[in-house]
Amino acid sequence: MIRLLNTLFGRDGAKPFGAYERMLALRYMRARRHRFLPSAIAGLSVTGITVGVMSLIVVMAVMNGMRAELVGKIIGVNGHFFLQPIDTPMTDYKEVAAKLEAVPGVRRAIPMVESPAGISSPTQQTGALVRGVSGEDLKRLPGIEGNIRQGTLEGFDASGGLAIGQRMADNLGVRVGDTVSILTAKGAQTPFGVTPRMKAYPVKAIFQFGLSDFDQLFVYMPLEEAQVFFNKEGEVSVIEGFAADPEKMDDLRMKIEAAIERPNILTDWRQRNKGFFDVLKVESQAIFLILAIIVAVAALLIVQGLILLVKDKTRDIAILRTMGATRWAVLRIFILTGVAIGLIGVTLGVGLGVPLALHLDGVRQFLNRAFSLNLFPAQYYFGLSQLPTVVERHEVIAVAFLTLGLSFVATLYPAWRAARLDPVEALRHE
């Protein structure tokens, strides 16, 4: 390794990557009859590296954008952390919520009664997750705020009605003003045991989160009504909190635990959605690996091209050696040729990939209009109306250096063969 570094950086007495080495390296990349055109193999190698780098950048940007959008929507609906009581019911939820909102980094804390239940209309029925929340707090939920499609949340506490998702309303065949029934197995306590409880409620508002799974699951009712219906008078089952920066939950967790002076179970959005985001991470890594194979194939083209180039330039190499060029100078010439191919491919790949990633949704819309297509339909992609992309600078840099590293490694064997060439044997057959 030390000897290789010495030879690459000219410690054999020659100036490393001098003018004549650069001139010969670039000359060997061109076709014989066309001064400014690359040879066929060099052109294929550059094209392969360009396509590989561009594909990596675009796909990673889409994966980053999808993750950011889904995290924003999922934790916007479900909150960032959840405080549940232990041992004793949480009857002091107003005081606990006030303490949470006083913690630096906590934007809001919303007490809720939460319970699974059945919901039915005159024609259909389905399951639901019913959340009892005050009208004031309901308006502060990021998933509800600005997403009411029908009806209103004004006077929600006194209305005795429900707010349901758009997809649930479509499945049940109801609109604002229609009546639905809520059924829970945990009803009144009688001498014969617990009896189910059912009650009819009018639909006061219909919202749309943008995630179909949530639009067909959540039902909101006034907090006091939920406390009575689910036998939780004067208490709540959970306090849902929202953080200023959900990525810094570890630091925030310590502050919350120090501020709350009662036994509790504290969970955050990472724990509740761990399986989902683990799948996204595995998919991202798998796609990166698959597309990296394109770059590896392009690197193999560099190997093939340089081997053919060494065979074609055998006579030239022999003449250079007889004129005084050292083995290491020949080695550096062919390394420089291969790295130049990689550098051109990386430059073109980054130059094309980054703008394409930043304007990918515009390209999608153009293709949809021009060819009457329906690329990336919202109903199949979590209700996302746009193709989200987020270009991370460190990922682009990592892809560029990875590709250059593969290009450098690909040049070593052909360059070593060229350096080992015996000028006497090469000229003997000329």
Automatic annotation (TrEMBL):
It is a multi-pass membrane protein. The chain crosses the membrane at residues 36-63, 286-310, 330-354, 396-416. Pfam families: FtsX, MacB_PCD. GO terms for cellular component: plasma membrane protein complex. Residues 43-258 form the MacB-like periplasmic core domain. It is found in: Cell membrane. Keywords: Cell membrane, Lipoprotein, Membrane, Transmembrane, Transmembrane helix, Transport. GO terms for biological process: lipoprotein localization to outer membrane; lipoprotein transport. InterPro entries: ABC3_permease_C, Lipoprotein-release_system, LolCE_TM, MacB_PCD. Residues 289-423 form the ABC3 transporter permease C-terminal domain. Belongs to the ABC-4 integral membrane protein family. LolC/E subfamily. This is Lipoprotein-releasing system permease protein. It comes from Rhodoblastus acidophilus.
